Amino acid sequence: MQKRATFRNLWLASAFIAPQLLLVFVFFYWPTAQAAYWAVTLEPAFGGGNQFVGLENFRAVFADANYWASVGASLLFAVGCTAVAVGAALVLALFADRGLRGHRLYRFTFFLPYAVPAAAVGLTFRFIFSPDAGLLAGINHVVPGLWNPALDGNDAFVLVLLGQSWKMIGYNFVFLLAALQNLPRTTIEAAAMDGAGVLRRMWDLQVPLLTPTLFFLLMVNITDSFVDSFALIDVTTHGGPARATMLMVYKIYLDGFESKDYSLAAAQSMVLMALIIGLTVIQFRVVERRVHYR
Amino acid sequence: MIERTPLVNLLTHLVLVGGLLVLLLPVYVVVVAASHDLVAVNQVPMPLLPGHHLWENLAVAWQKGNFRNVMLTSVIVAGLVAAGKVGLSAISAYSIVYFDYRLRMVFFWIIFATLMLPLEVRIVPTYAVAANALEPFQALFDLSGLSVTLPRWNLLNSYSGLVLPLVATATGTFLYRQFFMTIPDELAEAAKMDGAGAFRFFKDVILPLSVTNMAALGTIMFVYAWNQYLWPLLVVTDQNYATASMELGRLVPSAYGEAPVWNTAMAGTLIVMAPPLAVVVVLQRWFVRGLVAVEK
Question: What compartments host this protein (chain A) (predicted)?
Answer without folding.
Answer: Cell inner membrane; Cell membrane
